Amino acid sequence: MINFTRKKNPMPELEPEVRRGSFAESQTGYTEEEAVCEAMRCLKCREHPCMTSGCPVHNRIPDFIDMICQGRFEDAYQILRTTTCLPAVCGRVCPQEEQCEGRCVRGIRGQSVAVGALERFVADWHREHVAAELKAREGNGKKVAVVGAGPAGLAAAGDLAELGYGVTVFEKSQVLGGVLTYGIPQFRLPKDIVEDEISQLKALGVSFETGRALGEDLSLDDLLGSMGFSAVFLGFGAGISRTMNIPGEDLKGCFQAQDFLNGINLKEGFSGFPEGRFPKYGTIAVVGGGNVAMDACRSAVRTGAGKVLIVYRRSEAEMPAHEGEIREARDEGVEFVFLHNPVRVVDDGSGKVAGLECLDTKLGEDDSRGHRKPVNIPGTEHVVPADCVIMAVGTGADDELLGKCGLETDSKGRIRVDPETMETSRPRVFAGGDAVTGPLTVISAMGAGRRAAAAIHRKLSA
Ligand code: FAD
Ligand code: SF4
Ligand code: SF4
């Protein structure tokens, strides 16, 4: 029986007042009844565009949703596991409105089926009700090295281990998960969920070596030579913070969003946090309009700041952040200052931040990506008072590391790969994820890791 209600079953969430003071997950997930009711909205379309053109890893969406309709939640999980190794993560953080849900035919005359919320429900149900039974596969005698334990590296490692390869993941930092662990905040993606998905890879026999950086502690020659790996997969991301290159970015109280989020997520502070914890500021101004800026401002609210502002040089219509993130930030009390272009971080006279000097802007012609360009209005300099500034203006490639690897890159420092085989300019070295595409999404990185694993298998078994 189909549920023809035009609206999605809303995802239950904590009240904004509770969220403001807590890093607990803000959305609490469907109950079994809510999940079945939402699943009944799916038409099980023969063409299923949600799956074929919406989901980068082609999750079998109508099939797993059909299992939910029948109350067969574990069967739904097993269907998802044939195409994804991170369903609890993707169900939470995928930009579904641009992917599976964006293609859902129910979205034509109403709201799409809540595919992400259903995927999350199934993965959570499995975690809560079924003991893990994964065992290492019989080895095929060959070893593959994976560099970077983010979604690209984890997905490649999981598939290669399933195929019988001895897989070792070398990770620069002390924690596994990449951006999933130290970038995306706890209130959107609880860390125990990432740990649980990683523990399944460990059960499959994948070894992890943390604190081991390519380019510092080991080289591609070591891996392919003395260390005896038959192939290498590079999934080291594109996590080097970009700066605005304006005066005052080195003042006390001015942070890069990556450093701020890392410190908050890992709860151990970093050198910029006095006494290992983030101080309580009067006003925190976050510069940027993307999803990282939303994560930074919502985390800033939770540090107990008096006021949190988003300062963005275009208008709301041009913000690249997802609508849901903007709404949640607003509900939590974040104020938005549009059409403001920061030109200087102001010094209070003692080396600390006193504000952000901005010029008013107006919107001009479209740029190459079809976004209207912000144009400064001369003579409109003014200071937005703030005692802390967080820059969330993007990340890019690690040029130093790429130089050491000696691989071909494009003009933006992205590793060049053969799109069919994911092999780089050096034979037996494959790459995928943000290191190849530039900053993108969890699911696209995961999809690239899986494609690379299949290509490595083809090459090593030829
Ligand atoms: P990463 O996740 O960056 O992982 C790379 C790993 O390689 C890291 O663990 C790093 O420490 C390690 N590494 C780096 N250099 C070396 C080295 N030399 N040797 C060994 N290891 C190394 N995407 C979404 O789909 N939804 C979201 O909601 C979302 N929110 C985001 C929020 C933030 C704050 C950020 C920064 C990104 C967000 N993204 C989101 C983007 C998404 O997280 C990335 O596209 C994805 O993590 C890329 O995966 P990856 O495996 O290529 O790289
Ligand atoms: Fe949708 Fe992402 Fe799940 Fe694919 S992995 S079905 S895009 S939520
Ligand atoms: Fe179900 Fe929508 Fe996919 Fe059709 S397009 S199968 S309604 S999720």
Quick structural overview:
This protein is of the alpha/beta class.
Biggest sheet strand order reads 3-2-1-4-16
Give me the count of strands.
16
What count of structural domains?
A: 3
* Helicity, as a percent range: 25-40%
Q: Characterize the overall form.
A: globular
So, CATH architecture of the largest domain?
A: 3-Layer(bba) Sandwich
Topology (SSEs and partners):
Blueprint: H1 16-20, H2 32-39, H3 49-54, H4 61-69, H5 73-81, H6 87-93, H7 115-129, E1 143-147, H8 151-162, E2 166-171, H9 179-182, H10 191-203, E3 207-210, H11 220-224, E4 231-234, E5 240-241, E6 254-256, H12 257-266, E7 283-287, H13 291-302, E8 307-311, H14 323-331, E9 335-337, E10 340-347, E11 353-366, E12 372-376, E13 382-385, E14 388-391, E15 395-396, H15 399-405, E16 429-431, H16 434-437, H17 442-460
Parallel strand pairs: 1-2, 1-4, 2-3, 4-16, 6-14, 7-8, 7-14, 8-9
Antiparallel strand pairs: 5-15, 10-11, 11-12, 11-13
Helix pairs in contact: 2-4, 2-7, 4-5, 4-7, 5-7, 6-7, 8-17, 12-13, 13-14
The structure holds flavin-adenine dinucleotide and iron/sulfur cluster (SF4) (2 copies).
